[in-house]
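Researcher: We're teaching a course module on how sequence relates to structure. For the next exercise, students receive a sequence and then see the predicted structure as tokens, so they can try to spot secondary structure elements on their own. Here is the exercise chain.
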Amino acid sequence: MTGTPLTGHVAVAAAADLRFAMDDLIAIYVAAHPGVTVEPTYGSSGTFVTQISEGAPFDVYFSADAAYPRKLETAGLAVSGSTELYGIGQIVVWVPNDSMLDIATRGLEALTDPSVKTIAIANPEHAPYGRAAEAAMRTAGIYDAVKSRFVLGENVAQAAQFVESGNADIGVIALSLAVAPDLKDRGRYAVVPIESYPRLEQGAVVLTSAANPDAALSFLDFVLGPDGRTVLDRYGFLLPPS
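Model: And here is the predicted structure for the students to work with:
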């Protein structure tokens, strides 16, 4: 980039499945733009829509469901037609290393094992990964048999934390969390067939209220560019077809 170096602060609202990928992305971006600070806040995509609608001071919004930033476009809170897809999320069944459950062979069917008393998923009311988990269970024909065992996390990262901490026996979480350094050595996962739930198209947008739109757009462009793509690929985010 030529011209005056970018400076200022960028406040990022990011879906919880991006927690580790985003930390890596920010580290690379800030190293190249030392005059810019990027502060992420992680949570459920639906909750962020409510917060942004109520005036929360975010500059860029990364959602696990591209419908949410498009909703902000319609409301005039993001530039119309400006939502960019950055990946397609995937869900996995995850258990700690000491679990006796055979998820490699059974996949989602492991949720029906008599030893399973609690199943962690993200709250489907406002978390796209929770809705995907429920849809996959319905496709597998096990939803009614296991729904009474659900422990709902505010977002998919909290659902993962429930299993990792022993507060749930098994979880259906984001692949991006299962492969992250904090979890990959602590448990095992089995990928849920992607055709068994609605496609998790994930989208990002710069908000019209951005205090530093130039830096916000620069950061989003970086995430969508080749260096950002390398990080997203590493965390299992598929590239949407162009």
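Model: If you want an answer key for the exercise: The mean pLDDT is 95. The radius of gyration is 18 Å.
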